Amino acid sequence: MLAAVQPDLRPDQVQAQLLLAALLTVVADRGRSLAGMPELEVSAADAAHRAWLTDLFANAAERAQATVAGEPVFGWNDRSAGAPVATADGERWLRLVVEQQAWAGGEFWTGNGDANVITGVAKPRVLEHCDWTEGPWAVRAELMTQVHGTPCSPTPDVRAPIDLPSAWWSELTSSLAALATVATERVHLRQADVTRRLEVFFGDRAGDPTVSRWTAAHADLHWANLLAPHCVLVDWEGWGLAPAGYDAACLYVHTLLEPASADKVHAELVEHLDTRDGLLAQLYATTRLLQRVDHGDYPGLAIPLHHNVNRVIAQLTDDAH
Predict the structure, then answer these.
(1) Is the peptide bond preceding residue 209 cis, with omega within 30 degrees of 0?
(2) Is the Cα torsion angle 238, 246, 263, 269 positive or negative in sign?
(3) Fewer Cβ within 10 Å of end Cβ, the chain: N or C?
(4) 84: which strand partners?
(5) 3-state class (DSSP) for residue 145
(6) pLDDT reading at 32 higher than 90
(7) Residues near 76 by Cβ (< 8 Å), separated by ≥ 6?
(8) Residue ranges of the domains in the chain?
(9) Using CA atoms in the order 285, 211, 27, 52, what is the torsion angle rounded to 10 degrees?
(10) What is the value of pTM for the model shown?
């Protein structure tokens, strides 16, 4: 069992936390702003943070009465860590996430566990979890079923051709169809979010931004969250209601640097992408990536995104006439 016991911090852990707090500024979109800091200080902060996460992970494994069976994999901005573990009940996956206490809690904090209600989708299941605090940080450890496979890409986008068998695409479309039928009160996006973002980025070019159909969505569907050789969807923190076609839209815009692969995504998911809601979803997903591009992520993706925006808006305009 994952026991909720607050351990005493070792001096080196305290030092790591102090260094992290001094050098790490958590800002909007759960990112980190280290602009203007000398490179060596940034490296020191990152190294201290990973060392701290590794210690926390060992602590979580002990709570779960598990033995770590592989090197931890660190998530976006080193906010989380996960690794396979061995337990008395067999292979499992242990995931650890940290967040400032003021931002912990709510649907994003409980998303992986809440996703246990979803059926018909290839995904891990949370077996048990434990929450505790470490100084100003909230920590959650989740012991999950082990799913097998490797991420389709080491990064959310793709910079090399994606070559997946037809069975993989069938598994993806089956999972998306099952997910769309899930009834939930969890909300990832609201109409006001879509309206505001499309007006800010595109003015009135897209026409009426009203979404007609809302369905349950993974809401962060990109290539690092999809496994192969069998299609498995991981990382369910933010799932909830979104415009119909939003998952297909997210995956498609993350593929635009590889035109042939993007064409394949479009061909396989056209029923999601080419509806009016799917086109609006592409525009919203694009705004998210453009914000990340503006912060230095996804080099080279801005122009393909804008080219796709022009195509989508033209299609929306044609459909309106």
Answers:
(1) no
(2) positive
(3) C
(4) 93
(5) strand
(6) no
(7) none
(8) 11-145, 150-320
(9) -70
(10) 0.86
